[in-house]
Amino acid sequence: MNYQKLDAALATALNDTQDPEEPSLAVFIHTEPILDSAATAVLASLGVSDVTSGKDIFTATLSANAISQLSEQSWVKYLKRSHQLRLVNQSKSLGGFSV
Questions:
Q1: HSE of 55 in the Cβ direction (CA atoms, 13 Å)?
Q2: How confident is the model at residue 35 (pLDDT cuts 50, 70, 90)?
Q3: How would you classify residue 47: left for phi > 0, otherwise alpha for psi between -120 and 50, otherwise beta?
Q4: What would you measure as the largest C-alpha separation in the chain, in angstroms?
Q5: pTM
Q6: What is the pLDDT of residues 68-85, one digit of tens each?
Q7: By the 8 A CB rule, do 24 and 61 touch?
Q8: From CA 64, how far away is CA 36, in angstroms rounded?
């Protein structure tokens, strides 16, 4: 595994993974802008959807083993963990007052 291509959040999550074969980590895959057919085939085989040449950012839910495999590819620039966004409350209550 090439840890230099992983962000800190993804590296930490990989250490906490129970099953290295289970696709449980949502990631952004940043690649070179022009991928050859072999690179697109690797992404497609790992379950990455909408793999087309000319794109350079892909999203997928991958296993720890798949992330390790991708980190070793020369055409992968880096891998970043994706976090689910939460809505922020429209107003917060402070002692009976709304802010």
A1: 14
A2: confident
A3: left
A4: 61
A5: 0.79
A6: 999 999 999 999 998 766
A7: yes
A8: 24
